[in-house]
Amino acid sequence: MHEFRELKRLRLKMDGYRCTRCGDDRIHFLTAHHVVPRSQGGTDTIANLRTMCTRCHAESHRVAKRTRANRRARSKEIRKAVKPQIRQMKDVLTARVIELLSYFFMWLEEAIKGTDNKRSA
Q1: Which percentage of the chain shows pLDDT scores above 90?
Q2: Coil vs helix vs strand at 44
Q3: Is residue 56 within 8 Å of 19, Cβ to Cβ?
Q4: For 27, which of 5, 12, 65, 81 is 20 to 30 Å away at the CA?
């Protein structure tokens, strides 16, 4: 935990104690924002931190949350649209497999009969 505080102080200093989004320089409102969230594999490194004021920081998380919700909604719509096509393809493939298996079993019966005929001759 102490290590992150040091990284945060260093990042604020590197960014000139200003929000990298709006330029706010009120130091008691500044924080370090993870560019790639830790929940998504982001790390506590200088390269992954940006100085932001509390307002911009909160807004960046609201935008990210809306973006994730929109992606989920689009994925759900796509799955809903594709599902009937997948079901139709499954039915076609099932029919084709059954047809191929019937040809295979007919061939197998003939092969067995041929072998029996050769043995009895």
Answers
A1: 54
A2: coil
A3: yes
A4: 65
**Could you state, in order of their start, the residue ranges of all structural domains in the chain?**
2-120
CB neighbours of residue 47 within 10 Å: 9
Give residue 121's pLDDT: 58
Residue 56 CB contacts under 8 Å (≥ 6 apart), including other chains:
19, 21, 22, 24, 33
Which of 47-56, 76-85, 90-99 has the lowest average pLDDT? 76-85
List C-alpha distances in Å: 88 to 79, 81, 84, 94: 14, 12, 6, 10
Q: Bridge-partner residues for 52, per DSSP?
A: 31
- Phi first, then psi: give them for residue 54, nearest 5 degrees: -60, -35
Question: 54 and 31 in contact (C-beta within 8 Å)?
Answer: yes
Q: Let me know: does 60 contact 19? Beta carbons within 8 Å.
A: no
